[in-house]
């Protein structure tokens, strides 16, 4: 049997997770009926987990709720099992299937650590870890486990990992093990998912780490969702507005822009691009005006509701909370200002400082269930813009993080 990459459960639940726990136990075997020792068994998006013993057995405890039990072992496909915990113990027998060898062969044998790979690694770090001051304090200790594929037709970059990433976060004081499941940059959009494990770098938490963790939490999506559930958004520093996004009527359609570009390409030698045109008199004038208007923003946002009431953001179905709203939400956190790197932007164009952190979110599904510790059951059900898009993985915290109450 292959030796696995052992992942340790590094935290115990505290505070709201300390009550009424359910015992979950079971046995993990391979499809050759061999006991799998060292498999990682944990509840997704929590820090509840353990590893299997020499008999392939595991045992853990979880508070009441709906979870996805994840079983991970190097060389085998990740298994995900939805479970609902209660007072009744849960016992499971799980068989892991071996991973397809084709992708592994591509990753192992085709990866060349040349200039192109180095460039893609920089792009990966800037998008996955982010560009914040905390991201600068993250070190991927095993970067050569990463393999990149670039598709010129779709302008997309995809990343794969042969083994879990080891990330030393000197800003927050964690050693993070991250199982990368999916990573893709497509145009200006980023999508990534995986499973994270957090370990304190030292037993005693430095004052600097406590301060940085609190700063990372304040204004975060986790902070917002917890405040939404507690219905204390204003006290926590959040202002919520609602807006619609529509096509800019002043900007020509994509079809007209394409036709104008083709027309100009055919007459390129005889065109005065600096010509001032008030009223187009010729087809060439019209094409130039269309091309100039193509620089306008494609969409316009129209604010139509300030201080959005809770009933327009959250819905309860069988006592389960769901994020549910129309159009877009603008979420402004008033107790911290933007970082300088956010104002500079990716292309060096400095924005005017507002003194607050503003993020936009849109639901990609009709509604999205919120877990009580401040995450969405399906993290891909919303799309972030603004400050939350700027704050990427380096600013994320383990779900059992609780800010210290002011004395």
Task: Give the SSE layout.
Layout: E1 21-30, E2 40-43, E3 49-51, E4 57-63, E5 65-72, E6 79-85, E7 90-96, H1 101-110, H2 115-129, E8 138-140, E9 146-151, E10 156-161, E11 165-169, E12 174-186, E13 189-200, H3 207-217, H4 221-230, H5 233-236, E14 238-247, H6 254-266, H7 283-293, E15 299-305, E16 314-317, E17 320-323, E18 328-333, H8 340-344, E19 357-363, E20 368-371, E21 375-376, E22 382-386, H9 387-390
Parallel strand pairs: 1-7
Antiparallel strand pairs: 1-4, 2-3, 2-5, 5-6, 8-11, 9-10, 10-12, 11-12, 12-13, 14-15, 14-18, 16-17, 17-20, 18-19, 19-22, 20-21
Helix pairs in contact: 6-7
Low-pLDDT runs of 5+ residues are 1-19
Number of alpha- plus pi-helical segments? 9
Number of domains: 4
Rounded to the nearest angstrom, the distance between the terminal CA atoms is: 54 Å
Percentage of residues in DSSP E strands:
25-35%
Number of strands: 22
Overall average pLDDT: 86
Radius of gyration: 25 Å
Largest sheet: 6 strands, antiparallel
Helix- and strand-based class?
alpha+beta
